[in-house]
Structure prediction request, 334 residues.
Amino acid sequence: MNPRNVAVVGATGLVGRKMLETLEKRDFPIRTIKLLASERSRGKTLPFRGEQLPVEVLTETSFKGVEIALFSAGGGTSKKFAPCAAKDGCVVVDNSSAWRMDPEVPLVVPEVNPHEIKKHKGIIANPNCSTIQMVVVLKPLHDRARITRVVVSTYQAVSGAGNKALDELYKQIQDVLQGKEPTCEVFPHPIAFNCIPQIPQSDAFQSNGYTTEEMKMVNETKKIMGDDSIRMTATTVRVPVHTGHSESVNIETVEKLTAAEAREILRKAPGVVVMDDPSKQQYPLAIHAAGKGETFVGRIREDISHPRALDMWIVADNLLKGAALNAVQIAELL
Ligand code: A2P
Prediction:
């Protein structure tokens, strides 16, 4: 592959930094790299391939000569600046939700629907973190047994809400341990020693009672799997974990799949690691998945309440496979 001129938008953020780390780790062929962020980051530098590179302030003209731009600076920034980049001939891989459900924009998980990439018109969307790890596991099972319904509950890490959210978790843990009342600025309720069934933190609820995160999982799963007929319901929950989203997933299928057959299919699935030995108390854990690129699945068992359904536990690093790594994999496909 020829070296490319690359930009990372939101380079100072948690996901932006992981994007830089991932580009470095995977030896992505780069001719030039531009690190972009807001006015707040003027004068900052970030390490990349042994050098300290300056962070530039994002403007509409930042993309002249850039071939691939990885965006992770929030939906508003993507809505405004991704079209500017595309107009300048740059291909945007966007981690925000701004473009995901646009019919003109491919929504891609490289292990699931890599062929969609060819349809891009300058913008490719990176799916929601909880959706990515789930479809990596569900697609091979869908191909074999056709999934008709999915019921998912998520246990999502605090790093998914950004740097300030992690600071709030640590501060609240200290406050509680010192007998003080925890204060909340990022989350609507204390996240230390607690679970919050609301993602995102503000304007979360829709008129149907679901949160926007839950509806993202429902809508994006259908788009990525290329099957609108899959019925799905989700409950998304923030838990006081640093990094690594965990999910309890129940699927109903047309063809009966035994737990052993599902394990066999998933052992051969790209990007998936089966970790499933109850006799050794072995199953995926967020603390083990953090820092790794694979999606881990375990606790695979036949649902005792249904003749053709399976339960499983899916875990992945929300900043890597759920965001930065998936974006870099898309850039590699490009
Ligand atoms: P900055 O650090 O300059 O605020 P996180 O979600 O981890 O907090 O990261 C958000 C990222 O998005 C940061 O890199 C942040 O830059 C960037 N960002 C937020 N708003 C803008 C904006 N209007 N223009 C450019 N970058 C932005």
Notes: The chain has three domains: 4-126+324-333, 131-157+195-318, 162-194.
